[in-house]
Structures are given as C-alpha cells and as structure tokens.
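Encode chain A's predicted structure.
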Amino acid sequence: MSADVMNIERRAIVSGIGRSASGRRLNRPAIELTLDACLAAIADAGLTPRDIDGLTSWPDHPAPHGFGGPRVGDLHTLLRLDLSWILGCGDGANVIGILGIAAHAVATGLARHVLVYRTVGEATSQGTGRRPAVMAGPGAGAAPWKTTYGVGSPVQFAALWARHHFDRYGTTLEQLGWVAVNDRRNAADNPDAIYRDPMTIDDYLAARMISEPLGLFDCDIPADGSIAFVVSHADHRRDVDRPVFFEALGGGRPMTSSWEFWPDFDVMAATKAAEQLWSRTSLRPADVDVAGLYDGFSIFVLLWLEALGFCGRGEAGPFVEGGTRIARTGDLPLNTSGGQLSEGRYLGFGLAYETFLQLRNQAGTRQVTDAEVGLVTGGGGPLAQAFLFTSDR
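Encoded structure for chain A:
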C-alpha cells in the first residue's frame, strides 16, 4: 500500500488561521468570540463562508464552567454555511483530535474546506472566585464519586504522576519548574498571553501548593477566547500564501479512562500517540524545529518529552533543567507562545495556533529561525493526540 494511502492526512493542509480577542474575564458572549475567530480564519484562507463545506468542533454538548463554546449547529445557522460534512465531536476527537478528523474528511472527499473551532469562556465563568473543578458539577458524569477519595479535580491525578516521577527517577521540583519558567519567558513576547510578567525559578518555588507536589504555576490558566482553523484539500495550496502541511498524526487511549487503574504510572496515553505518530512518518524527533507540548499541568510536558523520544524514560527532568535546551534558541524550542501555563487554557488550540505561526514565519519576536517542522500535542493522562506539521512538501 502506498504511503499516500497509508497517510491520507498528507492530502490536507491548514489553509487559514484566526483567533478572537483573548484574555481574562472578557465578559463577551461565546458566540461573538467564535464568529470573530472563524471569520478571520476563513478570510486568511482566501475564502468566504460560501466556500466552507465542512464544520466541526469539540465538545459539541453543554459543558459547565465555560468549558465549551457554541454548538456546530448554531454556528452553521449563523454563518449560513452550505455543508456536505458536519461533525459535533464528543469523546473520540477530544482536545485537538478534531484537526485529524477534519484532515481525513477533506482527504477522502467528504468536504473541501472544513472550519474547525474551539471556544472557551472559563475565565468569565469563574468570575472573581476560585476556579471550579472540571470533574465536579453538572455534566461531570460518574466522576463525582471519586471525591469520596479526595480526587475532585484533574490536578490531583496529575499530582500522582508527578510524585511517581519524582520518587522513581529523582526528578526535582526545581527541574519541573523550568517548564513554567520557560513558558513565562516566552509569554513576555506574546501580546495575547495572560501572564507576561517575568518569573524566576525562586518565584515558582514560592508559589502556593495546589496538590502536592504541584503548585500554582504548574496549572494552566482559565481564559476566554476562540481559535479557528480552515483545513483544506492539499490542492488548495496553490491559492494560499503560507499553507501548513499535515505530515503525520497519532492518538492514544490505553487501558481505561480511569488513571488510577493503570498498571504502570510511567505510561500515559502520550506513549501510544507518540508510537503511532512516528510510525506514520520518516521524520524523527531530531527533525523537529519547534514544539507545542500540552501543558495543562507542567508534569505532562515531561511525560510528553519522554514518550516522543526527545529523551529517555525518566530523563525529562535533567532535559528541561536550566531551561537552555527548551529555550527558543535551544535544541527544542518549546511552547513559544507561553503555553497554557502563561498564555492561557485553550485546550491545545493555542499551541497549534502558535505552531502554525512559526511554520508560516509569522511569530514576530518569538520566531524560531528556519522553523520547518512543528510538533503539537493535546491531552494528558488518559487521552492524547500528536500531530506533525511541515511548512513545505
């Protein structure tokens, strides 16, 4: 079977990108933010709404605490789209997985131009109080039973992974802190980032504890905003100034969705996603010029680095220590927008948006020199996706 058939995502490109105003407590309707981002992405692709024949988002169901934006049916009506393909995604295409679903839709001829969007209003929903737990409240399903055992939020699961890594491999809190410090250093040059003030490793260590050993700066920031992309068939590249090409994708959801039942705490879904990603391309970790690794919690970055092969198992602490290797001028420029720890929690879409800017040479003062291969990941713990993009083919 030919590589083109095996890797049908290579028949797709990202032809347009757009984002709305972003920040804390914007107090603007989610549908308004969504329309701003989507119309910007469509125009960036050199298209009009009449050209869009595919539409998808995640999650496409009522979500608590501003976690989800308008449903695809509502956006379809407001933009008056004439669609041949529409998908309101649930569990299987979570986080950034809908990018792969859209790529396969255009690659197989179900649509030619698919609009993909993600909208959050968590900061406005939170108000001036503390951030509510995603696992609690309406729509949380069976998760609340776990609060009986002291687990009411994903940070408490992530803390178990961090403690395991510390105990088995000798990883230190100071090493982990360089993920957050590097994010903040990059955010200083991003006008869309929520936290831009300088932060030192001492500032990180002095922050209040959230779920030991994870502190305040190990957790992503509730944000408001919308980010949208247009995924088109690859032959549209001739009509686009700066197309971004899908190279390969991978996904994973091993064993069970309940982290506490996994037999090996060294393994999260990132391991499966990374294995599939590298099996679908001849490129290797050394070829990656810029990476956006999902940092809903800082420990996820260490686990992604190991799963993807940038370092060996248990070696991610020394890899990030000092922040030199992961700096914009380092071996692996990491989360150059500031990531979710400083730019804001856009559920991986902010990382993808930044990677596309880098590959289009549009990242301004954050631009990584000669960025041609970009890696983006989504999720952590029980679910994960990984994408490899290139600036040319």
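The first strand starts at residue 12 and ends at 19.
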